[in-house]
Amino acid sequence: MLLNPVDVVDAIDPASFRKKYYDTMKPVVIKNMSKDWPASTKWDWDYFKSKVGSVNVGVYNNIKSDSRTPVNKADGYMLFGDYLDKVKQGPVELRIFLFNLFLHAPELVQDFSWPDELMTGFVKRFPMLFVGGAGSVTHMHFDIDMSHILHTQFMGRKRVLLFPFEEQHNLYRKPWEVLSFVNFEKYYDPVNSKLDIEQFPALQKARGYDIILEHGDTLFMPAGYWHHMEYIDSGFAMSLRALQNSMTGKLKGAWNLFGMRNIDTLMKRTAPEWWYNFKKSRTFDTANQ
Fold first, then answer.
1. Burial class (CB within 10 angstroms; exposed 0-12, middle 13-18, buried 19+) of 206
2. CA neighbours within 13 Å on the CB side: how many for 113?
3. Phi, psi for residue 231 in degrees, rounded to 5
4. Which of 64, 173, 202, 257 has a C-alpha 20 to 30 A away from that of 112?
């Protein structure tokens, strides 16, 4: 893989953001975007437990999906407070994915500001919380709705591997899915890495970015960017989503959500092994070309 660091700025004016990053579909880390948000000092494990500890949430482990796994299917469920207790006690390879905390505690939306000056189209009903124990992994994927993302890290550190959408064939994308066949876990560790270059040789051509997010960092991920995340420490982050301005972008997201995903789920239920083998064969043929 050919990896570069992501641009990092302390702050950025809207015109520069749009010219250098939004319009060019290039990621950037903004260090101080959230510094004045009450959330930057109020949000911690105990605060969340007091607000929504009794809510039942889906949790996800580090095992990659197989031929029968629908997109975003949880591996188990537990009370949010019990999960937070596990996270606080030490490393735990469980994470919470796409949790709309604000449906259960709507007053928390007062703890941050929507950066409307940077971009339009924010889906303000769905700010999403992501929580992970140290060692938990979000495997390589792109967001199905093809939204732009502002991802702010509030606690702990997280390693992020990014690729533009156009690298999908070098990343061995599963057809009709938003996932990769490749396991990128510990890609940075030459001893313990699960990345298999011999099995997936096109990875050597993939051009992307590598970054470690720390408390207060906000990562702009343009629409369709592939991302793999590993929690170095137990921590949590919030994603603010904005629809693309173009009708083409909106239609791609709608197709993924209501067309592609439903077809894939149907095939996984009716002919899982055939469907998996068909997609794998097609993926390797495309990558080899």
1. buried
2. 11
3. -80, 110
4. 257
232: closest CA among 159, 162, 183? 159
Q: Which of 26, 48, 150 is nearest to 102 (CA)?
A: 48
- Give the DSSP per-residue string, 88-119: HHS----EEEEE-HHHH-GGGGGGS---TTT-
What are the structure tokens assigned to 133, written together? 């124990």
Q: At what angle do helices 80-89 and 45-52 cross, to 10 degrees?
A: 160
Residues 96-139 have pLDDT tens digits of 877 888 888 889 999 999 999 999 999 988 888 888 888 889 99
Closest CA to 165 of 244, 233, 69, 87: 244
Of 87, 121, 98, whose CA–CA distance to 233 is shortest? 87
Calpha distance 103→50 (Å, rounded): 15
> What single letter denotes the amino acid at residue 210?
D
Residue range 72-85, pLDDT digits in tens: 566 788 898 988 88
Give phi and psi for 285, each to the nearest 5.
-60, -45
Exposed e or buried b for every residue in 30-66, given b needs 16+ CB within 10 A?
Answer: beebbeebebbeebebeebbebbbebebebbebebbe
